[in-house]
Write a structure and sequence with these properties.
By secondary structure, this protein is of the alpha+beta class. It has one domain: 2-Layer Sandwich (HIT family, subunit A), CATH 3.30.428. Helix content is 23%, strand content 22%. It is built from six helices and 16 strands. The protein has a nine-stranded antiparallel sheet, with helices on both faces. α1 crosses α4. The longest helix has 21 residues. It is globular. Bound molecules: 5,6-dihydrouridine-5'-monophosphate and zinc ion. 5,6-dihydrouridine-5'-monophosphate binds next to loops.
Length: 339
């Protein structure tokens, strides 16, 4: 059986392959470990640049917000006033990239995070994500909503927050996914990710599901605990989600993030983000909304997976199978501390 020996799996969303070589995790580990951060934060931190009423690095003062709060990133990687220009000099090509970067605070409470917020609180974040996409898509082709959680993933501050970057171009990852989804739609007249869900539903890679959403470890997962979150009906992008689907999303997020935190009894670091239709959404009927979760941890709260060697030079690779990770996540309930 192909799945019992070292094998390659194809990522239907990107067209790329991943090498799966289960069994390698039993090798001895003498590499670096990460130190888990000390837990225990207070609800307000006078030194935090995201807490209500506090002053940021640039001197701007945050309002005394009581739900969510958005501001233009003070150190934005993309700037709206950049004039569009191109350079085409043989093999040297470049284009300027106008855009906008914002920071989105999920809650005034410094001591919470998405995993520990109530579903009602998470719902305000879902609405915030959706509003940001709708707003920034008026002026940009691609709006990337994302969150880096934990110092391991480069989060600069434990205050619950994410980011939105929007720009004129369609970046590499959504470009590949758009092409694969368009091709599938043209060939079959159906949505690639909904056909994929159909094949996976009730199967060994599903972690959690409710009436509107399915969370699963994708067949082609690269990161050890990677997850994909997909709505069960055709939804092109976040602004298209109905109220009941937003509530369902808040509930399944609370569920799966609780499972993540229960894996090593530790706030699970990850980068997560949303992919949906590029603007204008009407031109992308083949797009299906979804969220990716890419957590870096491998075997404990302190051992992370590094993308090195063969992975940088040949092809990404994973040691533990997607199926065994899904089984582990299914078996875990939310921990006390994350409810
Ligand atoms: P990360 O935790 O994912 O790094 O996001 C925090 C962002 O907040 C980061 O992009 C911005 C940083 O540029 N920031 C401000 O805009 N103002 C500040 O006063 C500090 C940090
Ligand atoms: Zn804070």
């Amino acid at each position: 059986m192909v799945m019992d020996v070292p094998h390659r799996r194809r990522n239907a969303l990107t067209g790329e392959w991943v090498l799966v070589s289960a069994g390698r995790t039993s090798r001895p580990w003498q590499g670096s470990t990460e130190t888990p951060a000390a837990a225990g934060r207070s609800a307000y931190d006078p030194g935090c640049y995201l807490c209500p009423g506090n002053t940021r690095a640039t001197g701007d003062q945050n309002p005394d917000y009581d739900e969510t709060f958005v501001f233009t990133n003070d150190f934005a990687a993309l700037q709206p006033d950049v004039v569009y220009e191109t350079m085409d000099d043989g093999l040297l090509q470049a284009e300027s990239e106008p855009g906008t970067c914002r920071v989105i605070c999920y809650s005034p409470r410094h001591d919470l995070d998405l995993a520990s917020m109530s579903p009602a609180g998470i719902r305000t974040v879902v609405d915030l994500w959706s509003d940001q996409v709708a707003d920034l898509a008026k002026e940009n082709t691609w709006v990337q909503v994302f969150e880096n959680r934990g110092a391991t993933m480069g989060a600069s501050n434990p205050h619950p927050h994410g980011q939105v970057w929007a720009g004129a171009a369609l970046p590499n990852e959504p470009l590949k996914e758009d092409a694969q989804q368009r091709h599938h739609f043209e060939e079959n007249g159906t949505l690639l990710l909904l056909d994929y869900l159909e094949q996976e539903l009730d199967g060994e890679r599903v972690v959690a599901a409710n009436e509107s959403w399915v969370a699963l470890v994708p067949f082609w997962a690269v990161w050890p605990f990677e997850m994909l979150l997909v709505p069960r009906r055709p939804v092109r992008w976040l602004p298209e989600l109905r109220g009941d689907e937003r509530d369902g999303l808040a509930r399944i997020l609370s569920d799966v993030l609780g499972r993540y935190d229960a894996v090593f009894d530790f706030p699970f670091p990850y980068s997560m983000g949303w992919h949906g239709a590029p603007a204008p959404a009407e031109d992308h009927p083949h797009s299906q909304l979804h969220a990716h979760f890419y957590p870096p941890l491998l075997r404990s709260a302190t051992v992370r997976k590094h993308m090195v060697g063969y992975e940088l030079l040949a092809e990404v690779q994973r040691d533990i199978t997607a199926e065994s990770v899904a089984a582990r996540l299914r078996s875990l309930a939310k921990t006390e501390s994350s409810t």
